[in-house]
Write a structure and sequence with these properties.
By secondary structure, the chain is of the alpha+beta class. The protein contains 8 helices and 8 strands, in the order H-H-H-E-E-H-E-E-E-H-H-H-E-E-E-H. The protein has 2 domains: about 80 residues, Arc Repressor Mutant, subunit A (Orthogonal Bundle), CATH 1.10.10.10; about 170 residues, 2-Layer Sandwich (Beta-Lactamase). The protein starts with about 25 loop residues before the first helix and ends in an 8-residue tail after the last helix.
Length: about 270
């Protein structure tokens, strides 16, 4: 899975812990501990106390006290028998609970959205070069769109794919759209400049549109956000073309409301710039 956006951005003495403005000692301790934990994110081989101190902009002695406290709670553990620390098993258990909560929240939101619009609602996650369906609530119409959970869709010619691209950095977008774009239908976008315009439009209005670009007879809308683990995710509504034109504006309104609901409940940003 591609890294979408680092949730830790401190470097050297300019790290967030060094610029902590809150004078409440208890809050400051929690903030510093969180900063230390974020510095270990993605560090499979762990970091030394000196490396952590340099990253977060704190004295090594302060980092040592924080790490010792975190080790007591199993939030960090030894990276090797001789030196360094890495994230510990207690965080894995907490992450598992958070994952269950995320699944419950998104399932509830998808169900309510599908009931409100009467169409199929999907949840997709960026995996490799594709948007992969991880959840679905089907429409009750006899004529409806249905995908299989686990099915992969190209990013460049689907609503969910373009919505996912819209929450990635420009550097990642350039990497993802460098590959050839094959024409799957007469409406498929195959020019890089046109795709970038579609991504920019999605960032501006909050949702991407698919007009029979992947499959003839199917249209859709999707909005993207970063989940609590920083993964690029899309919430989408897919509709048979025969119903789409008359529903588009109403679908967009409902979709954006669902995105805002998701952001509030999960306390996550809904755009790259937030």
């Amino acid at each position: 899975m591609e890294q979408t956006k680092s949730r830790y951005t401190g470097h050297g003495t300019g790290g967030p812990a060094a610029t902590q403005m809150n004078n409440n000692p208890g809050v400051q301790v929690i903030a510093r501990a969180a900063t230390v934990l974020r510095s270990l994110e993605g560090q499979a081989d762990g970091l030394s106390l000196t490396q952590i101190a340099q990253l977060v902009g704190l004295a090594r002695s302060t980092v040592a006290r924080i790490v010792n406290a975190l080790r007591e709670e199993q939030f960090v553990m030894a990276a090797s028998p001789t030196s360094g620390v890495r994230l510990g098993p207690a965080l894995t258990r907490l992450a598992g609970s958070a994952s269950v909560h995320f699944d419950h929240v998104t399932r509830t939101i998808m169900t309510e959205l599908s009931r409100a619009v009467g169409e199929t609602v999907d949840l997709s996650v960026l995996k490799g070069q594709f948007a992969v369906i991880t959840g679905q609530v089907e429409s009750h119409h006899r004529l409806r769109t249905v995908s299989v959970v686990g099915e992969r869709f190209p990013l460049y010619c689907t609503a969910n794919g373009k919505a996912i691209l819209s929450v990635l950095s420009n550097e990642l977008v350039d990497r993802f759209i460098a590959a050839p774009m094959f024409k799957l239908t007469p409406n498929t976008i195959t020019k890089r400049t046109e795709l970038i315009k579609a991504i920019e439009a999605c960032r501006r209005i909050g949702y991407a549109v698919e007009d029979e670009e992947h499959t003839e007879g199917i249209c859709g809308l999707a909005t993207g956000f970063l989940d609590p683990w920083g993964r690029a995710v899309a919430l989408s509504i897919s509709v048979p073309t025969t119903r789409f034109e008359g529903l588009c504006t109403g679908l967009a309104s409902r979709l954006l409301a669902a995105r805002e609901w998701t952001a509030r409940v999960l306390n996550i940003p809904v755009t790259l710039d937030e």
